[in-house]
Amino acid sequence: MGMTSVEFCLANLFNHFRWELPERMVVEDVDMEEAHGIPVSKKSELQLVHVNFTGSDLDLFLANVADVHNEKFVSH
Length: 76
Fold this sequence. Notes:
Elements: H1 2-15, E1 18-20, E2 34-35, E3 41-42, E4 49-51, H2 55-70
Antiparallel strand pairs: 1-4, 2-3
């Protein structure tokens, strides 16, 4: 349960930033080969670079954060 919570938090954090490939790297350079074993993992690391927010990106980010905090969770 703890690992699931950590992965969920990291996924949400990564979702709130813009990511790009490093300079001089194109999509075709990304190795999607999987390593052998029970848990599926990538054979080589994925390299990404975060992109700094511009004014409009920051406004959009803050609006999304505000929406997440204002959501009401209803139990079924």
